[in-house]
Amino acid sequence: MKYIEKLLSNDKYKNDLDTLCALEANRVFCKHDKTHFKNVSLIARVLNQENSLRISEDVIDLCAYLHDMGRLAEYSGVENHHKASYNYALDIMNEIEVPKDMQNQVLSGISHGVKRFDVTERYDNRHKLLTLNEIISFADHFSRNCYDCKESEGCKWSAKEKIDRNYYGLED
Prior knowledge:
The chain is built from nine helices and no strands. Helix 3 (about 35-50) packs antiparallel against helix 4, helix 3 crosses helix 9 (about 130-140) and helix 4 (about 55-65) crosses helix 7 (about 100-110). Helices cover about 55% and strands about 0% of the residues.
């Protein structure tokens, strides 16, 4: 069984994802839900293939589906969601018995933190992304639908950081 299947069928993960979605139900900006995670995975897979990185799809999927789960802790005021996502990923991967070498890859991939970039420059340089961390960071950024957001004017992202079109044909 692929580890992403084990994750998505894990009761703790499913309950935590439901809780996160409930907490963000009234959020007007980008939500951190299964659609976001799926889009991050799809973009990262494209970059992995285009850049001939040979990163396992299971590792990419685990990164994509775990990278924002720390928002649960952030909503309760405990800590920054990037650090909390790292800790959450470590705990849940132990629970679903992901091998240590794969855990290390996933943890590296989700440690990209907050780095927003100029969209045009970043997209033009996408073929220079060589690490899992870089492709997850890119995919997290380009999974956003700023171009179709009714709240774009109130977003904290600058005009240069906002995604100005659907680059990867992602569905809503």
